[in-house]
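B., you asked whether I could sanity-check this one before it goes into the benchmark set. Here's the sequence:
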Amino acid sequence: MWKALPERGEENEKENGNSMKETYSTGATRNRIDVRWDLLCYEFIREMAVVMHEGAQAHGEPGSDGSWQKGMPVGVVLNHLEEHLYRFKSGDRSEPHLAKVAINAMFLDWYERNEIVVEK
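And here's what the prediction gave me:
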């Protein structure tokens, strides 16, 4: 089971007794965070969002019926992940296979974090 990152104000407020604040040349201060959002590829994240939108239209909008969040058998999700990885590795560029690989990995992560187990 994955351990969630601590929320702001919890144990990440101080590290080894040192303040987790940065002070800028203007005198302004800001809490440091140990998450680097600036290192993500937003084009890829957008591609995932487009795929999720298409899936929500086809399978039900998350929040209304919770479709993927309700859970699916891990084997089924892994099979879809591996199929899209295989197609990408085989040179198929007819659909966003890598975004679909990442989305299936996200599903698995959600199920792990929320202890969702579906047999069939």
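One thing to flag: Helices lie at 42-59, 74-89, 97-113. Otherwise nothing jumped out at me.
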